[in-house]
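In the laboratory, one determines a bound structure by crystallizing the protein with its ligand and collecting diffraction data. In a computational setting the workflow is compressed into a single prediction: the sequence and the ligand go in, and a structural description comes out. We illustrate the idea with flavin mononucleotide.
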Amino acid sequence: MTTPTPGPLALGPFQLPNRLFVAPMAGVTDRPFRVLCKKLGAGYAVSEMVTSRKDLWNSLKTSRRANHEGEPAPISVQIAGTEAAMMAEAAAYNIDRGAQIIDINMGCPAKKVCNKWAGSALMQDEPLALEIIEAVVAACAPRGVPVTLKMRTGWCQAEKNAVALARAAESAGIAMVTVHGRTREQGYTGQAEYDTIAAVKAALRIPVVANGDIDSPRKAREVLAATGADAIMVGRAAQGRPWIFAEIAHFLATGEELPAPRIADAKRWLVEHLHDHYSLYGELTGMRSARKHIGWAVRALPGGEDFRRRMNLLESCEAQVDALSGWLDALADEHDRLPYLAALDAANDEQDQDEDQERRLTA
Ligand SMILES: Cc1cc2nc3c(=O)[nH]c(=O)nc-3n(C[C@H](O)[C@H](O)[C@H](O)COP(=O)(O)O)c2cc1C
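The predicted complex, in structure-token form:
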């Protein structure tokens, strides 16, 4: 079965090339990682959240988050906060620094801002959520900048207000809504559910994006079918596997799974990403924060866990790049493509079954 190839999607003045998005993840989807995902098939990426607290805008962390150099358009920046006027100011500040789309975070348990929890906590207070949405839209609309909203299904199981909030947001001028199929109370536990996302989709005219637990091309197709969503957003599964977007696109178009990437290609992409990462963060911070990306890239490969432990002891960017390159070269002596452990296990199971059958037939 194939799914009609999801074509471009209009978002305000922008045509997104496809409907496969990278989820905003603080500490992960910085500019180098977004560029990598876009290069490998993602049609759209949202920045890590930027606080609405002015006193933090000059901090190194926030200014790195506002760095969009070399990122293919549209540049989408997520803002988080609890106060409407501050959120409107944060939107304007980020537009001045290159943001072409502003995303409001009501999806992630953002850290305390002004002694209140921002992000998904706002779903508990619909009037405040709406006040923020209206203020941000009012700041962005005159500048032709679309405002999008990321939310969860609700505050808790008994209070799933995603449909009501999404409807109100649409009326207030929001251009696209993303729903993570969990409540705020759930955190990341349990499984994402897609019925609420389907209900949001059915209730709105603007594009709706489905998010939560999409970790394979097949799951992407299931979620699209279950929700009728206009697009899907992938977070954790893209960590260490940024080519998942190309894999999903191929599967939706053909109904066939792409083979894993060639090791030589994966090495080139990962090493380029590391250099881009170091250039944003500098030697020391870059070397430390790159460890998680390398760890994710090798975790599903044979010997990956052992390599990760050794790599974590290295203390320079050059040593990291050399170690990863050498390790992948050694893997390439035995395999052409990334030998994912799950695929090796499945192949072994199949071989065992074939051998069992052969034994039975020849017994
Ligand atoms: C490390 C991490 C950081 C995250 N940071 C943000 C964030 O800054 N803003 C946001 O809206 N959601 C954030 N999220 C939530 C993701 O965008 C996404 O909704 C969630 O991970 C579910 O999607 P997934 O199952 O594909 O990972 C974060 C998730 C993770 C794992």
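Residues 9-254 form a domain with the TIM Barrel fold (CATH 3.20.20.70). Keep in mind that any predicted model is a hypothesis to be tested, not a measurement.
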